[in-house]
Design goal:
This protein is an alpha/beta fold and 410 residues long. It folds into three domains: 240 residues, Rossmann fold; 74 residues, Helicase, Ruva Protein, domain 3, CATH 1.10.8.470; 71 residues, Beta-grasp domain (Ubiquitin-like (UB roll), Roll), CATH 3.10.20. Helix content is 38%, strand content 18%. β3 and β4 form a beta hairpin. α6 crosses α7 and α7 packs across α8.
Length: 410
């Protein structure tokens, strides 16, 4: 598994880590998002090794503007809703003291190194204690879970920074190395860039002091800032179909205004996706409703689906699973989706209509998009065409979400 995760990081594949305590519904969230075959059990540490699978972000497909139906090579499209694949990693449950190795925490944290963003699943019903053990609903305050994970991640980053830091910082000072470039290279495995380091030094007033002279508080401030920037988090308040869960969602949203707290019922999403897959109902992930085939359902099944409709979909507008993935990619990471296409032909050589759709950092230029498609296309760039507007665009033209772009090369 770790070799697979390292390969993803090397290939710059977007990776979303699914994290949280044991027994809060984390693996159910992961399975509902990927329909991967993972162990789901009502006890701590049901997941030991990280599971990797393919989830999707959901966007309005541009094919409707061309009055056609796309045929993706990766992902899929339903009702002109395009589902673009992203990698999800379900990391084994973390407990307080994980950064010190408790509960195999160091190994589990290392699985998060290549993640671009995190989805933190908590038990909003308050039915799981700090060790991941089942307790009476409402007896545990889920507010503690957000605070504990923030601390574990900060301490993990600090621990990575401090390994050999004194010698590293002293050498950097003696050799008059570029501080920004040298630190960014050292922490690149955490997705830290030169831009991150430069901003961190400036915003924390650390630029005027040599790193070799930083005290413990300054190192912690540096590590915590980098963690927030390189591992931004969406909070998934799972088990929101219970009354106590609904009450706690409101409490969490009031206390953590800097986070997006998403009400979620992973059990409901898993039930809907599996029922849709078996053909007993029609459901598109992220939708606020579904259509049942009464002839294929027994009374107990219809009752369960009625509960989901009333207590989850009508209350929150979705189960929260698809929403969490979308918010991690588009809101936290600030990505957009762009299609390669032709002015006169939207199909590839195999007849696939709009076969590809790329997730790109907001602000990407036409030239940057060309390099993303293929290095040779970027090197041979002459100009690009906005296929929807049918106008030429230059290499510095900034693309917008849903753009369809044809690249002209030498």
């Amino acid at each position: 598994m770790r070799s697979f995760i390292r390969r993803l990081a090397k290939n710059k594949t977007m990776i979303i880590g699914v994290v949280g305590k044991p027994n809060v519904g984390k693996s159910t969230f992961f399975k509902s998002a990927t329909l991967a075959d993972v162990e789901i059990a009502n006890y701590p540490f049901a997941t030991i090794k990280a599971n990797s699978g393919v989830g999707h972000v959901k966007v309005d497909c541009v094919d409707v503007e061309f009055k056609t139906q796309c045929n993706p090579r990766t992902g899929y499209c339903v009702g002109h809703k395009r589902f673009i694949p992203v990698e999800l990693i379900d990391v084994a449950g973390l407990v307080p003291g994980a950064h010190e190795g408790k509960g195999l925490g160091n190994a589990f944290l290392e699985d998060l190194r290549p993640a671009d963003a995190l989805i933190h699943v908590i038990d909003a019903s308050g039915g799981t204690n700090e060790k991941g053990e089942t307790v009476n609903e409402g007896s545990y305050d889920p507010v503690n879970d957000i605070k504990f994970l923030e601390n574990e991640l900060d301490m993990w980053y600090l621990g990575i920074m401090k390994r050999g830091w004194e010698k590293f910082a002293r050498t950097m000072q003696q050799e008059h190395s570029n501080v920004v470039k040298t630190i960014a290279k050292r922490l690149s495995g955490l997705r830290v860039t030169e831009e991150h380091v430069e901003r961190c030094l400036k915003e924390n007033n650390l630029g005027e002091k040599a790193p070799a002279k930083w005290d413990e508080d300054e190192m912690f401030k540096f590590a915590s800032w980098l963690r927030k920037e390189t591992k931004p988090m969406v909070i998934v308040a799972n088990k929101c179909d219970r009354q106590i869960g609904r009450d706690n969602v409101v409490k969490l949203q009031e206390e953590f205004k800097d986070y997006r707290i998403i009400p979620c019922s992973a059990d409901s999403e898993l039930a809907l996706r599996e029922a849709s897959k078996s053909g007993v109902l029609t459901y598109t992930p992220g939708d606020k409703d579904f259509v049942m085939d009464d002839s294929k359902l027994n009374e107990k099944q219809m009752e369960a689906l009625g509960f989901i409709k009333k207590n989850v979909l009508e209350t929150y507008g979705s189960t929260g699973v698809q929403q969490a993935i979308n918010e991690a990619v588009f809101d936290l990471l600030n990505y957009i989706h762009v299609y390669p296409g032709g002015m006169n032909k939207l199909e590839d050589k195999d007849g696939n209509v709009l076969p590809d759709c790329f997730l790109m950092k907001n602000g990407i230029t036409a030239l940057g998009f060309a390099f993303r498609i293929h290095t040779d296309i970027g090197k041979g760039f002459i100009k690009a065409m906005d296929v929807k507007k049918r106008i030429p665009i230059g290499k510095e033209h900034v693309l917008l979400k849903g753009d369809v772009v044809e690249i002209m090369t030498k």
